[in-house]
Amino acid sequence: MADILQIEGGVLKGCSDKDVTSVAIPDGVRDIAWTAFRKCTHLQSLTIPKSVRHISKKAFIKCTSLSKIVLSDDFEKVPSEWFVSLNEANYEIVCTKDSSTYKSVRRSPHLRTHVKEIALQIAKEKKVSELKEAGMKALLGTLLENVGDSSFEIFQNKKGSDVALFKMGKNAGFFKLCSNHSRWLPKIQKVAESFADSSKSGAEILAVIEAQKLPLAEIPQWWRMKTVLKADSEGSLRVFASGTLFKCKYDGLKNLELFGVTEIGAGAFLGCTALSSVEIPSSVTEIGARAFLVCTALSWVEIPSSVTEIGERAFLGCTALSSVE
Fold this sequence. Notes:
Layout (H helix, E strand, L loop, with lengths): L4 E4 L2 E5 L6 E3 L6 E2 L12 E4 L5 E2 L12 E4 L20 E3 L5 H8 L8 H28 L6 E7 L5 E7 L2 E6 L4 H16 L5 H10 L9 H6 L1 E3 L5 E5 L3 E2 L3 E3 L3 E5 L3 E2 L12 E3 L6 E2 L12 E3 L6 E2 L12 E2 L1
Parallel strand pairs: 2-4, 3-5, 4-6, 5-7, 7-8, 11-13, 12-15, 13-16, 14-17, 16-18, 17-19, 18-20, 19-21, 20-22
Antiparallel strand pairs: 1-2, 9-10, 10-11
Helix pairs in contact: 2-3, 3-4
């Protein structure tokens, strides 16, 4: 095998047999150059030893038949860039389960789907998740069947955990989903009943949420950048969430009540010119810079004693502000 490979100073620079179907790179090679397998269109299998520390992003261009890559068990890190020039759908990575190589590949979103065992597990988990979600949506659809201005949506946060938005009228709740959806459904049903009860205050609804031990979730960035939170016909909106409330898109928002959040992020309501009143909960400890910048209709805001820091220009340009409590 070594006689067809051009190796100089630990760098694999080329392969003289363009019709070769299988190559085992010898131990000691540290670098695979972009010219290493140029025009090796028949190459199907490649074994890479633990000595390799770098592979050119162009190393496998036009290796159209390469479908199997065998990795040594001793890699601490396998960069996804090594195989960027390969057809994503057509190659398999082979490594020993529970080896350091396997663990490294498993951590990579781009590589783990190329290990057959991991890919099958991912596909199984996705199918189970889809079935659970379909069942939950069907049940909640029945629950909301005769309720106007209501919606339910499931999405993921940056950590890959499921978050549910449940909205009814002026009440919008963001909740963390537990893995056992059958346990979660009765809890959200109780919350739905409180959302539908127009006589209940936001504080009373929060008490129901806490009694059901239903954890609130932070609003994911990608979601708040593309989705609109709509106030009711009177311009009122209650938001039940956790963590930092960053800037969202709102429709018709005039009166806002917040519950559960711990911080109002920088620029959270910047330019919300129709916003006239805000009730901030005692869970909030910080109001970020420019949080209410140029909210020209804002005339009343309640700031609890729990707030210990207010950022620069948080209320600059709030020309109608007459009462701060």
